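Example record

One chain of 405 residues, shown exactly as stored in the release files.
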Amino acid sequence: MYHIRFLKVPYLSRQSSPSKKGLYISSTANGVVKPKNFHQRKHSSAVLLHAVVTLTTDLGESFFYGEVNVRLSLYQDNKDNYESILCTKTKKWIPGLRALPFEISISPNLLEELADLKNVKHLFVKAEAIIDSTFKDLINDMDESKTSDCRIVFLPIASCNFNISKTKYSSTIDWSIKYKNDDVRYVIRHLSIGHKKLDLLEQTGENIERHLWDCGVFLVDHLVRQSRTTMDFLKSLLPDRELSNKCPLQIIELGSGCGTVGIALSIIFPTSKILLTDLESAEDICKRNIALNHSKLRARDTSVSFLAFDWKYETNPPHVNDMVFNTTWDIIISCDCTYNVDSFEMLTGVLTMMTTPQSKFLLVHKERHESEKLIFELLQTRNKMFIEKSHQLAVNARADIWSLA
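Predicted structure tokens for this chain:
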């Protein structure tokens, strides 16, 4: 899977004449994105929407090496989840690229309509890959070990909603994008949970714990399929429990990140108590995502919450450890946490304190390097656990259900 990312969140500039220098954009604390020299501009009718995107792996360690068309579109978010495209542009990503800049011209009439204060328009920009017959995946072409049915997935991305504002000066008109509060720091992913849409914020920048990771997306996709494989997976996870919405479960996730898996499970198991845990650095983004999807959980008995919990549990406040260690958990989840071998001792140590005979430990992992094998050895020797069932989620991603021996 490759993640489409914004290297620069969408912004506006006035198209300058050939004799004028380009305009430079800055972000302000109140969420307004505007040119630094906007006071000195002379009036011109052409305005450009800018964005810079890239195609990388979830950790950002490599770029997509192939050819694919990428489309950038300006949408209006209307009532009843209806979205309309106002303008769009498609460009080709080719091998060797690290960034793909976009410029879309917005007509003066459309700008005036979008900036109408009497009828505020909620807008967003979406970047997505367009797969057609010309698609070339040079990575799979060069790797003969890949199966012929291996498909490359590109995860689309969208900006948070914004408004276009208009400010008049004596001889100038300033157009700018105004984000709500500090939403300029965030982008959004949309995942389908049956007939519902899960909205997940991730933060721009290099903070990996505040991004979506592959295994979380793969697991959610696997769980929402109404297939025999999915039902076999759920029966393996809870062999002695009724697989229905009336069955309350105690579920905890260790290393929840943005909250992808836990929030999705709260929709799949609507009567469950779900506790998402991670370091304090992930608290803000996870709580934002719980709040963002709150309307999908209304009128349900689901309890979804976040707790800052360090696997070096000796450093946690006593009440935090009590919440984690003094609850009988039906399902313990750790998703995409095997990338760091230095954390294995701490993770297995926490599991010894919280696993009971009725608990199932769901370890979802992507095969990234050889050193990951150590976690399986520790679970077998230190935690006395064994794998009851494994499910292949993707070519190099797997979900293992562990139980006490």
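Notes: Residues 18-44, 139-150 have pLDDT under 50 and may be disordered.
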